[in-house]
Amino acid sequence: MDGNYYMIQDYLIFIGVFAIFLLASISIYLFSWNKRYKKLNKKLSETNKIIEQRLNEVQLEHIGTKLNPHLFKNILNSVQSHAYQTYMSLDKLANVLDYILYESNTRFVSPKEELNFALSLIEINKIKINPLFDFRIKFNVNKSDPMYEEKVFAPLISVDLIENAFKHTDFLAQDCFIAVQIELENRVFSMNVSNKASEKNTLEKERSGFGSQSLDQRLKMIYNNYYHLSRSSKNGIFTAELTINLGEFYDQMRYS
Questions:
Q1: What sections of the chain are H helices per DSSP?
Q2: Cβ(104)–Cβ(69) under 8 Å?
Q3: Contact 59, 217 (CB under 8 A)
Q4: CA 20 to 30 Å from 137, out of 7, 67, 115, 196?
Q5: What angle do CA 190, 196, 202 make, to 5 degrees?
Q6: pLDDT of res. 227
């Protein structure tokens, strides 16, 4: 009886040891498999980020190839339709064309370069309106701001808002106007453009144009959560507001 008892006890001990060994082996295998899985998952995640980045670059290049000829055509039409003032605008036109042909091919320019371009573009567009037209521009740019000469500004971002204001203003209305306000302070760029809109150009039509769509796409792909763009229409006045936190975007670029 005692012999059978000790045999059963030895058998149970053997089973216990075997079970512990089996569990240990399974644990080691699962640990090793989990480690390889995490390594593979990390590699796939890095590859996915590279693919997404390249896709964004391709999309931006595609948008740029459409945007530049579109802007170039509008500028030439503006100058050509008012040939008697062409001589006075040649200097501004040269600056704009140089910017479009050369600077727009770079990924980023400085706010200083973009704002000089915006002012030249405004001067060219002004040649097609009456000298008495109510055009207001407020330029509040802190040239000592740390971002003023940093390469953090996507070229041609200011084009859409300015072009739309001139394109869709009702110049025949008695109370027609265009107002442009540009600011750079505390590493934040802001631009507010408003105009008396023509009755035939509704907000929906305004937002459906290629220029507006490309602006939305570029801002989202480049600045992600560091910008805010809004458009509104009230009592025949169309207003577009753009704010870009260049400082936070610069910090993110520098440390990523």
A1: 2-80, 86-101, 111-126, 159-167, 203-208, 210-223, 246-255
A2: no
A3: yes
A4: 67
A5: 95
A6: 95
Name the token pair of 67. 């945007």
Distance of CA 2 to the CA centre of its chain: 85
- Rounded CA-CA distance 8/161 in Å is 89
- Any idea which residue has 């001067």 for tokens? 123
Give the mean pLDDT per block of 10 residues along the chain (256 residues). Answer: 54 62 67 68 63 58 54 62 57 70 77 90 79 86 94 88 84 85 96 83 46 78 92 89 95 82
* Residue carrying structure tokens 């458009």: 231
From 177, 158, 150, select the one nearest 250 (Cα to Cα).
150
**What is the C-alpha separation between 96 and 16, in angstroms, rounded?**
84
Burial of residue 237 (number of CB atoms within 10 Å: 0-12, 13-18, 19+): middle
Write down the residue that tokens 């039409």 correspond to. Answer: 77
Judge contact between 135 and 162, C-beta under 8 A.
Answer: no
SS3 category, 254 = helix
Measured between alpha carbons, how far is 61 from 222 in angstroms, rounded to an integer? Answer: 12
DSSP 177: -
**Phi, psi (deg, nearest 5) at residue 220:** -65, -45
**What token pair was written down for 202?**
């509704």
- Quote the tokens at residue 120: 């030249």
Q: How many CB atoms lie within 10 A of CB 176?
A: 19
